[in-house]
């Protein structure tokens, strides 16, 4: 089958279209949505603290692995994905591994011949041993309903040697255990770990930990079992978004390391050092400058958008000068270290110039140590009509050797009153999301829209050519998320039903630093056993014709979650920032996980951008 590598990484959509669902278009993936947590999933299982596999014949008293180096793994940690794991769970495990690599020093590898390895299985519920505990494949279960990234991370934290947060010996300073509300026979799940067997590593109590119980864990129905000393955290404990920054800090301290596997660079431009970047220009007026505000926008940096105080961002004005004037800003030189030579550059930009102005993103790659000029390749380009708010942009890179990223602003032919601004750059050795969908003022939409109103994304394409849409279903105080296949221009060349793909919808936590984020996400695999026989079939043959916009197309039933996030949860962290919400969307082929323990390196195709003759081929910027 032909592969169509249609990388639409920068498709950003700001309009919203309102259409009420007609039954039976919306199909719920499961009644659990995001309401089932580990303790409810594992109800009836005889597990220590609800999800910890204890050795038979061992006294059931928690002993923190932090003080026992024999319980720590050699890195990278070997693992095996057993045959009966659901395909969606396997894909989510791969995504969880990428989060460990991005945020911590922990890496994982498919097992070769190691005696100690993690055997990931589809047993009853979600469970794990704490730390390295046995030879020949210690069990870690990701069973039914456990296929959410926060739950997967939770269990792997146990396997790496971390106990539950509320088991800390100093927990009574931070939470109150309501013993009378605990279901009879489950009191032992709330035993504190003795300081003789554990250490807090000098870290404060973490209400945001992915390893914390929820407020009603093991409740007898008479009320919460845990009450936080600080009331603002009462609804926060037990979050299953992603690992918290302090979870990562604890893990790195435990393994005595602090360097991330895949993270490369972050810059918010608040320092005069500019993160080691250098600037140059062929003009005396078109130049990159640090700014706090710009007439005509932006009026604030993105880092502190919506907060008191203001930081700095970089701005290159195109209001003066002549067509073809350029301002360049080069990153420091970096070298990729991972096997898969793919990188993702992410940043926010504000375009207040003329529609003919350009912001070009170049990759300058050096082929050997004595190469002083490098080879340039245009990897991204922003042009067109200006906007009145910050936007998010992703640029996939393919550097195999030492490289620099160059931001070039080029003045166009029209009259400009502004220019280009950028802020909050993040660079990592990871694959970029395939698409970005930006929605303005979603909080107001929730409050004012009729119950049952749907917001549709544009039509996206997967790398292999499958067309699909994301649908947000508004329900006043919450919204659901769904995906549906739609007809596209490659349908007659594709395999049907759409086999072994995984769609991931991520609501971005807009923390400026990519390692500090705790986003909300859900993944759905196109397995034929899910929902019904037509969901992943060719929409031209089984779908309904919709006449919306300029081009009618066929649509299949939508599959997803009834409650993805509530309005209260939406205001937690930085899901809303400057009235913006961003959804990062990926549809990838994960068929290799049916027979192997890992995914192949992402396939990359050269972008096609129009660029003017490049005057800066003589070499990188020095400094101004």
UniProtKB/TrEMBL annotation:
Name by which UniProt lists this protein: Metalloendopeptidase
Taxonomic lineage: Eukaryota, Metazoa, Chordata, Craniata, Vertebrata
UniProt key word Cell inner membrane: no
EC number: 3.4.24.-
GO BP term (any one): proteolysis
CC cofactor: Zn(2+)
Superkingdom as given in the UniProt entry: Eukaryota
Protein residues bound to Zn(2+): 154, 158, 164
Gene3D superfamilies xref list: 2.60.120.200, Apoptosis, Tumor Necrosis Factor Receptor Associated Protein 2, Chain A (2.60.210.10), Collagenase (Catalytic Domain) (3.40.390.10)
Keywords: Disulfide bond, Glycoprotein, Hydrolase, Metal-binding, Metalloprotease, Protease, Signal, Zinc, Zymogen
Lipoprotein listed as a keyword: no
Cofactor: how and how many bound: Binds 1 zinc ion per subunit.
UniProt-annotated stretches for the region Disordered: 605-624
Domain Peptidase M12A: 64-258
Compositionally biased residues, Polar residues: 605-614
Location of the active site: 155
Molecular function terms from GO: metalloendopeptidase activity; zinc ion binding
Domain MAM: start-end pairs: 265-434
Alphabetized InterPro entries for the sequence: ConA-like_dom_sf (IPR013320), MAM_dom (IPR000998), MATH/TRAF_dom (IPR002083), MetalloPept_cat_dom_sf (IPR024079), Peptidase_M12A (IPR001506), Peptidase_Metallo (IPR006026), TRAF-like (IPR008974)
A Pfam family matched in the record: Astacin
Cross-referenced PANTHER family: DISCOIDIN, CUB, EGF, LAMININ , AND ZINC METALLOPROTEASE DOMAIN CONTAINING (PTHR10127), MEPRIN A SUBUNIT (PTHR10127:SF903)
